[in-house]
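The following record pairs a protein chain with its ligand, beta-D-glucopyranuronic acid.
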Amino acid sequence: MTRRLMNWVAAATMAVLGWTATPSQAQEWRGWNIHPPDYPVSRGLDRFAELVAQRSNNRIRLRPYHSAQLGQQDEAIQQMRLGSIDFAEFNLSPLNNLAASTQVLTLPFLFRDVAHLHAVLDGPIGDEIAADLEKVGIVPLAWYDAGARSLYTRRPVRAVEDLRGMKIRVQTSDLWIDLIRALGANPTPLPYGEVYTSLQSGVLDGAENNWPTYESARHFEVAKYYLTTEHSNVPEVLAVSATRWRRLNDADKAMLRAAARESATFQRQLWAERETQSRDRVVAAGTVVTEVTDRAPWAALMKPVYDKYAADPRMAALVARIRETR
Ligand code: BDP
């Protein structure tokens, strides 16, 4: 590069940075979301956008793109790290391989109930995990609910033996691969958008998810046996790209955090209602539910998962602190 060209590039870069950093300049942010508009996550994001527009006098305009219009989750995570997506709502599982501490939130049979999960997320452990995500370019602002995940299959499964060799879809996460393997099944990582057709064609024997997703993605049409294993309570995160975050002043950061937390309170209420509604809807449509009343034998099978993912001192300490959280 010639010196003149270098000077020009430097001047142009400063102009761009200077322009975006001007607080009075209106900015439009692109937001990624996998769910359809009426889903609790989507309504939470819409609320977040409204609050930020009001409180910034329309200076920061958040535009959530619902229904995976901006791509599947793994691509969206990369785009957010590169700064081409400004905010998003992600399940934590596809972040497991990127930020190790997120794995503790995915671990099977760890949380006693929703109140326990909230106490962990909204306290110091949540802050610690958020700091790790920030290091990889994803700045968490609030935690959204995603309920408990259970297994569902094309053929009836009543006991763990029935799962042997079945191809079960998982999200992109090594922990999830080991978890499904520990059940004797065959874990198959696939993007969310391919699950329906893969269940339909028999490429998959089953998948696992919460009631609202099983219902909204219409997986109940192609895998009608739902077994309430409730094996993971992995939550979700509302986050902003580090590229955007770095350019905000402290007042805007505080405003965005408060708006995100308020949207999470709203999302959590909607979530609780939607879980029951979704379950009722799929049962009315013919889903056969098998209740798992004793989860102890399922939890016992998870020993290799804990041995692998909760063994190093930091992880072991996090798990112990989670168990102690009241
Ligand atoms: C849903 C989550 C979504 C995930 C999806 C999945 O809300 O973020 O992408 O599961 O399994 O429950 O891929």
